[in-house]
Amino acid sequence: MRDIERLFNEYSESHMNPTNKLIHSLAVPAIYFSVIGLIWSIPVPDFVAQYDINFAHIIAVPVLYYYFLLSGPIGAAMTLLTIACFLLLEQIAASTVAVWQVSVGVFIIMWILQFVGHAIEGKRPSFFTDLRFLLIGPAWVWGGWLKRFNINY
């Protein structure tokens, strides 16, 4: 069994309840967005800022590399999600609201929803046993969509 399949199977064990799965399909990508937003908000040195990049751009490279190591289609899907997050964050950054404020709000609300989902499920979140599941969660959501469209990962 490939590593991605094993990780998805293991992750799925604590995500069987339809309500919990629905909550996760919304909350997990939103948490991914909020974490990128929080990293985006860390000030960068001037020699980095002159290239119009921030720490979120820098961190995205090894994270996306990890996803591509797991699966090409998962890597491509996570790249699309990451690009969408960057585009939305650019819009927020151009507004009067600070990116970090939006990110903290989304992060808190979505984690509360996640824990509600796990209370309904009656099982602890997967990342309590393996921190890799913090990265697997968003890929798992995409994996579900890829299956619906008959795209093998």
From TrEMBL:
GO cellular component, one term: membrane
Pfam families assigned: Mpo1-like (PF06127)
TM regions (residue ranges): 21-44, 64-89, 98-120, 126-146
InterPro entries assigned: Mpo1-like (IPR009305)
UniProt keyword list: Membrane, Transmembrane, Transmembrane helix
GO biological processes: sphingoid catabolic process
Taxonomy, superkingdom: Bacteria
PANTHER family named among the record's database cross-references: 2-HYDROXY-PALMITIC ACID DIOXYGENASE MPO1, DUF962 DOMAIN PROTEIN (AFU_ORTHOLOGUE AFUA_8G05310)
Name of the protein this chain belongs to: PRS2 protein
Species, as recorded: Alteromonas lipolytica
Taxon lineage: Bacteria, Pseudomonadati, Pseudomonadota, Gammaproteobacteria, Alteromonadales
